[in-house]
Amino acid sequence: MTAPDTTAVDPTAVDTSALRAVVDTSALRAVVDGRWATVREETRAQLAGQPGMRADPDFSSEAYRAHVTDALKLLTATGRAHSGFDPAVGGQGDVGGVVTAFAMLAYGDLSLLVKAGVQWGLFGGAVQVLGTERHHERYLRRIIDGELLGCFAMTESGHGSDVQHLHTTAVYDPATAEFVIDTPYPAARKEYIGNAARDGRMAVVFAQLVTGGVGHSADARSACASHGADARSACASHGVHAFLVPIRDADGNPAPGVTIGDDGRKAGLNGVDNGRLTFSGVRIPREDLLNRFADVAEDGTYSSSIDNETARFFTMLGTLVRGRISVAGGAGAAAEKALALAIRFGERRRQFANPATGEEIAVLDYLAHQRKLLPALATTYALHFTQDDLVARMHDIQAPGSGPVGAREQRTLEQSAAGIKAIATWHATATIQTCREACGGAGYLEENLLPALKADTDVFTTFEGDNTVLLQLLAKELLSDYGRTIKQGNPLKIAPLVGRQLAGVVAEHTGLSSLGRRLPGLRLDLTDRRRRRELLALRRADTLATAIRRLAPAMRSGNDEFAVFNASQDLLLVAARAHVDCLVEESFAAKLETVTDPGVRELLEKVYDLHVLSTIDRERAWYLETGRLTAAESRSIRPLVNGLCAELRPYAGTLVDGFGIPDTWLACPMLDDDAWAPAPGAPAAGVLEEVTTG
Amino acid sequence: MTAPDTTAVDPTAVDTSALRAVVDTSALRAVVDGRWATVREETRAQLAGQPGMRADPDFSSEAYRAHVTDALKLLTATGRAHSGFDPAVGGQGDVGGVVTAFAMLAYGDLSLLVKAGVQWGLFGGAVQVLGTERHHERYLRRIIDGELLGCFAMTESGHGSDVQHLHTTAVYDPATAEFVIDTPYPAARKEYIGNAARDGRMAVVFAQLVTGGVGHSADARSACASHGADARSACASHGVHAFLVPIRDADGNPAPGVTIGDDGRKAGLNGVDNGRLTFSGVRIPREDLLNRFADVAEDGTYSSSIDNETARFFTMLGTLVRGRISVAGGAGAAAEKALALAIRFGERRRQFANPATGEEIAVLDYLAHQRKLLPALATTYALHFTQDDLVARMHDIQAPGSGPVGAREQRTLEQSAAGIKAIATWHATATIQTCREACGGAGYLEENLLPALKADTDVFTTFEGDNTVLLQLLAKELLSDYGRTIKQGNPLKIAPLVGRQLAGVVAEHTGLSSLGRRLPGLRLDLTDRRRRRELLALRRADTLATAIRRLAPAMRSGNDEFAVFNASQDLLLVAARAHVDCLVEESFAAKLETVTDPGVRELLEKVYDLHVLSTIDRERAWYLETGRLTAAESRSIRPLVNGLCAELRPYAGTLVDGFGIPDTWLACPMLDDDAWAPAPGAPAAGVLEEVTTG
After folding, report:
1. What mean pLDDT value characterizes chain B?
2. Are A461 and A425 spatial neighbours (Cβ–Cβ below 8 Å)?
């Protein structure tokens, strides 16, 4: 790669095809593909061979659901679904590979991605990790083969985020050795459940496990479940557990006691049959409790390897981290596809003539257009590498043959997954929106693929954990970690450290080098990569310190806990965001170290620079308010970002080629070169003179 | 209204229904309804009586289009469509009223809004304002009555924003006294044309008018059209004009020479039949040139009351400003509906228990939730009043009996319309997205109305002028105005004024008071309303001065015009945005002056404060970089915004009630109080201890 001469950039003179040749695209692809390159290549070949899986955008919900159920069968035939399961049940234990392949389904049809995620990730995954041998033998092979389609019934219409306190009950009846499943009131129905409205035969149902409650009224059982194990009554609640519950018979009719509703048309993902499940006295055998972490003996005696109810619940949830990581991956792939569409369109579409030449200017040559798309592309690259790191960490913990998992390692993985899922899905939503707008009217037509990307991924920001709640969870974990560091259980009850002292402790805890911490007034040259990195680390440390400083004294003085928490909720979210910004930067920086091809490395370094500078740019008010940047330093960001946009513009096409999205999934009328045949005569008009609209 | 005690806000103790009574809702409604209150009441009654017009979200495009065409007929029966046309053609000349009523259709079905806008606003509007008596007599009554459905065929697939240089040709043939309409190449086809795919019988087609071109090849005619009137050839081009072209016969078959394509499924607005029109040698009588501003005599002699081709074109376009204002109004109403849904949901939906009480907390009581919705609500109020001002200004210029319109008055209206359309539609897109996310999974279901709002309004940011292009247009106009002020034709060719001198001239030009300008270092107390207002005005003046300072010297030194323009494109957009921020603030402040009810006034003052503070908050990096705010002042914004959110939270329901959206159009399952029947027993858990997800 030859660095363009930025002193005299004439973007209209750029011959895009020639420049693409300067960077070795296959070397770039290899870097992008990373550890699961083979899986990616196989998945690409499979996707490329299935253009018939593309849904008709005018499908009714019924037709689209049938189409996706058929596509799921085609997917079963590829064997990919098997590969993520344990070898003991016929799989290959390739946890990282299956998540990587899953995310790539976003290049095709996102309804299929979600349907597959429900069937094998959530339903099958829950049976594997929460169940034991008896469940694996009886159900898992049929789940993998797609013979038994099922649901993951956790969310209730009244309890989405606060799943520990969901209200469905499973009361054990020792007389028959059965659990009785009930929905105690309307807002406790299971809601938004994939596979429920049409295809599911069975559901993993999350419910409050109650023993000793038979003979009580449904209301009393529910009250018992709500008040937890401490309730002084004949019955005892043991918290949320997972149960296998048949919801339909072999003919597809609802099972006795099960009422099934249909969520109907949604903003997107209409190939997935989301529905509602209400249970009334549904009886299942004792053995259909998924009993890896807890069990109920025939006489009703409850036992668990984990004594603390909350700890048990989080252990169960933790095994399901794969779903959250998969959603982040799907969001990333969707953003990649949107950028590939918008950047290719921006290279082709011309608007207004250059007064010097009379030639119309490609819209991607406009600075405003570059600033919409290129920083988003840089961050998409950054998140791609971050996601790969996350998948690798999960694989190394979960794959068969991994050593024992430390609690700290598992917790850190969960924290990262929560934060990255939130940031990656918000990034996808914003980026796809920007890409739609960048394609104007063409971007609004379904034939050009952007509308489905937008509509289908929109729910990613609120499912598998609402993003705001996830960042709050991460912030709380960061506070706890900090508390552990300073040898106190609860960070809110520590003696208040003030000012620099606290910031110093946090900085040390977060691994900030001494330079940035000790010399906050030092002039930071924003062209220096190390300094920029330290700016991100400083922000991580400072925002966490600020949150602690606000919360700790207020908590100690006996104030109302909710009021104290609520007054600082925005600070907590800022601290979580700053933490994730560092994770993303670290993954990208580590990736750069591994790149050997000099052209690819030079290119990716510029992408990295643009990503990091854009992050600092987004938060520059904070840097100014805290004195971490001077006004002059802050003002220097804009020309740096603009310069990087100009430098990267000729490589924008190469960069989206780097994702390796099969051409069959990008083909659309707005990218058909025949549609852009030149005009017989091009009008000449000055940009400033002739800015008109209509 | 009694101001809540902010020192000890306990939002969970708020009894929303009681607080709503404190503010006189009908007095609030009267303020919100403004000048066209009667029209609003009539339209509400009509909408409330038509709940059957609600579309089935699972409609095929075909069924939805038929549904909307039927709904258009119902709308015709209300007589509202007539009212905007001139009394001479059977209307009432109530320009402001019809635009107000039109925008309110966004409370119902946006496909109907757009279909009505195409038929009466664009198609009928063009016939009225660009045509003359012969067109009015022959067509207008049938257009108003919905007997003649038609299209507004301006945009081409290769020329959306640069409409002055569109490529469709209309060549006059004196032998038959006809115009011959041609689409010279694929990207010159008319694209995204409403009413084209199914219902339209006629189109107002914008094309390059060529005389003396018969006998030339199509290519030669096109080349002539492209090169303008200066081309030395037998034919002469006179620029873009509008023609009435039949596109279908009475049986609905395409007219000879007209090829009609279907844009197919779109991201939204699928009740509107958008399509593509390609013309090949289509002949229309000479009389079907819409000849208000220019005509062609039978012998082919061209004449116009406006000599300059560009001036003529912009005069024609200027008469169509109503479309842009209507889109801004529709976007505003859509944002209002989204907020009404999300805020009512936020009052009902509870998540996590307050550890002090064991009661679950309404999600709108969380600070993070308030910060998502309440500043957006405040800005929606601000834009509502801004829109009303814009409509009133247009009415006073366009309504029958208005005096002669000054060029300056017309230009200022067009500038405001361009800027406000851009800001209002982006605000709607962002706000509806936020509302969708704030309702979680419920917000993703079509039954809860948010998905259609999002999908249908999404194109508003790029149609009737792409927002980025509109802001650029506004910025260019601001530069021109500035140039005129200092008695120079071209602001880029003026002697460069530097530093304070230039800022001073701009400040004076933009009406900034001396205080803010002369004392930039003065401590600005952000609780002071006048000072905040000056901060906005300062930004308007400074950003324009910066753009001029960058552009002027570069232009004078003989650099490439496009390169110079492009290097400052981001600064131009910033200046335009800052200008619109002032327009919005001014409208809201002026409105406050008219409010007599003390409770309503106190409430709206807080809404105003939150809007203005949020605007400054959004741009605080700029204020810090320019030294207009100190770090401490900037840091003071966050607690002020949070405090206003807490103060306004109890009135959030009242404020959305103020919009007066008919309940039939807000009714949806997620707001059904039966669905939120309380749990038999509520679990108690600390917010910080139990933040869990799933």
Report:
1. 87
2. yes
- Alpha-carbon Rg for chain A, nearest whole angstrom, is 27
Q: Is the dihedral of CA B658, B663, B669, B672 positive or negative?
A: positive
Q: Which residues are CB-contacts of B669 (< 8 A; sequence separation ≥ 6)? A: B442, B445, B447, B448, B675
Q: What is the pLDDT of residues B458-510, one digit of tens each?
A: 999 999 999 999 999 999 999 888 777 654 444 444 433 434 445 555 555 55
Confidence band (pLDDT; 50, 70, 90) for A123?
Answer: very high
Q: What's the rounded Cα separation, in Å, for the pair B89 and B76? A: 16
Report how far apart, in Å, the C-alpha atoms of B436 and of each of A34, A183, B273, B601 are: 36, 27, 27, 30
Of A70, A100, A105, residue with least CA distance to A662: A105
Assess A140–B contact: CB distance below 8 Å, yes or no.
Answer: no
pLDDT at B557 over 70: no
- Calculate the average pLDDT of chain A: 87
Active site residue A287: no
Q: Are A337 and A106 in contact (CB under 8 A)?
A: yes
Model confidence pLDDT, tens digit, residues A349-384:
988 888 888 888 999 999 999 999 999 999 999 999
Is some CB atom of chain A closer than 8 A to the CB atom of B154? yes
What percent of chain B has pLDDT above 70?
84
Inter-chain residue contact A433 with B436, CB threshold 8 Å? no
**Tokens at A212, concatenated:** 């000793």
What's the rounded Cα separation, in Å, for the pair A87 and A95? 11
Task: Point out which residues pair with A254 in neighbouring strands.
Answer: A248
User: Could A677 and B187 be called an inter-chain contact, meaning their C-beta atoms sit closer than 8 Å?
Assistant: yes
pLDDT tens digit string along B250-274? 899 999 999 999 999 999 999 999 9
Q: Which chain B residues touch A314 with a CB distance below 8 Å?
A: 692
Q: Identify whether the C-beta of residue A649 lies closer than 8 Å to the C-beta of residue A10.
A: no
> Looking at beta carbons, which residues of chain A come within 8 Å of B122?
none
Q: Which residue has the tokens 């499940």?
A: A277
The whole-angstrom separation of Cα A585 and Cα A578 is: 11
- In order, the DSSP letters of B441-459 are HHHHBGGGSHHHHHHHHGG
CA–CA separation, B626 vs A384, rounded Å? Answer: 36
Residue type, A415: Q
**pLDDT number for residue B80:** 78
Lowest-pLDDT choice from A46-55, B173-182, B255-264, B612-621: A46-55
Q: C-alpha dihedral over B209, B214, B220, B222, to 10 degrees?
A: 20
Contacts of A348 in chain B (CB under 8 A): none
Q: Rounded to the nearest 10 degrees, how much is the dihedral formed by the CA atoms of B453, B459, B461, B466?
A: -170
Q: What is the mean pLDDT of residues A144-148?
A: 94
pTM of the model: 0.92
Minimal-distance CA residue of chain B relative to A10? B563
**A308-335 residues labelled b (16+ CB within 10 A) or e (exposed):** ebeebbbbbbbbbbbbbbbbbbbbbbbb
Burial tier of B299 (Cβ tally within 10 Å: 0-12, 13-18, 19+): exposed
Which ipTM was obtained for this model?
A: 0.91
pLDDT at B13: 39
Residue B174 DSSP one-character state: T
What is the radius of gyration, based on Cα positions, of chain B?
Answer: 27
Distance separating alpha carbons of residues A410 and A315, to the nearest angstrom:
10
Q: Is A596 exposed, middle or buried (0-12, 13-18, 19+ CB in 10 A)?
A: exposed
From CA A221, how far away is CA A237, in angstroms rounded?
9
Task: Give the model's pLDDT for residue B48.
Answer: 84
> How far is it, in rounded angstroms, from Cα A67 to Cα A74?
11
- Residues A332 and A391: beta-carbon distance below 8 Å: no
Whether residue A358 lies within 8 A of chain B, CB to CB, comes out as no
**Partner B contacted by A446 (CB < 8 A):** yes
